[in-house]
Design goal:
Elements (H helix, E strand, L loop, with lengths): L1 H9 L6 E5 L11 H8 L2 E5 L23 H4 L8 H18 L3 H10 L4 E5 L5 H8 L8 H11 L11 E3 L8 E2 L15 H7 L18 E3 L5 E3 L20
Parallel strand pairs: 1-2, 2-3
Antiparallel strand pairs: 4-5, 6-7
Length: 249
């Protein structure tokens, strides 16, 4: 946002797209960057659209990770994904694959291409077969019902927002809880000793002066009703003190 503002201020060319990680199992992009892209007309070039190889259709519930999976080397470097969340998304992809006759990677990429602000995806095919399979993600569209099924399976509670008003809200769903609702937190341990005695006392009421205090001088109210610093009173001369100027006697 700052770079766009600076470019516009000085008449420099504005960039029109940026690269982001976005997939059915990694939708953090929707929380802040997607609204920014919608507001500024900024497109997204999505990298790792298959979630670091997790949405290839080879990872299944109750089955070991395939021997040739890149996740053996990259799982510790990419964004973490809970197993149950991954399996829930794969189950929804399986159902749609049976309805459409498409492959799981094709459905996952097609979903991305229908998302707001997404201009294109960057695919990382290992061989010609994977390339041809990924290219089969275009030329057709998922139905609104299928999109809704994928959205429901892949939705997660948003992280704590910077505004501090909402602690969690599923994408497109109702508010889960307000930050003022602390019922989801563990109860505090009981107070003991002096702390318990202090806890029984009512809190001391806070008082607030009618006018802000000014350091080093008093205040007075002018004709307009505003508080102004009062001038310092003249210093009282003490015995034996002589002014800096005047006749000496």
């Amino acid at each position: 946002m700052n770079s766009l503002s600076i470019a516009e201020r000085y008449g420099h060319p504005l960039y029109v797209a940026h690269q982001v990680y976005y997939s059915l199992i990694g939708r953090d992009y929707e929380w802040e960057l997607m609204p920014l892209g919608l507001d500024q007309g900024l497109g997204a070039l999505v990298w790792s659209p298959l979630g670091w190889g997790r949405l290839t259709g080879k990872i299944r519930r109750g089955q070991p990770l395939p021997a040739n999976s890149r996740l053996h080397r990259t799982a510790d470097y990419g964004p973490p994904v809970e197993d149950e969340h991954l399996y829930r998304v794969v189950d929804a992809l399986d159902e749609i694959a049976q309805e459409t006759g498409k492959k799981i990677p094709q459905i996952a990429i097609n979903w991305l291409l229908q998302r707001p602000t997404v201009s294109s995806v960057i695919i990382g095919a290992r061989n010609e077969e994977q390339l041809r399979q990924n290219l089969g993600a275009v030329g057709w569209t998922l139905t609104p019902e299928q999109l809704a099924k994928l959205n429901a399976a892949s939705g997660k509670v948003a992280a704590y927002t910077a505004g501090g008003r909402t602690c969690g809200r599923p994408r497109g769903g109702p508010l889960v809880r307000s930050c003022r609702d602390r019922s989801h937190l563990a109860p505090s341990p009981p107070l003991t000793g002096a702390d318990a005695d202090a806890g029984d006392r009512p809190p001391r009421p806070r008082t607030r002066s009618a006018a802000p205090a000014t350091r080093g001088c008093s205040t007075r109210q002018d004709a307009g009703g505003h508080r102004r610093p009062a001038p310092h009173p003249p210093r009282r001369r003490t015995q034996g003190h002589r002014a800096a100027s005047g006749p000496h006697g």
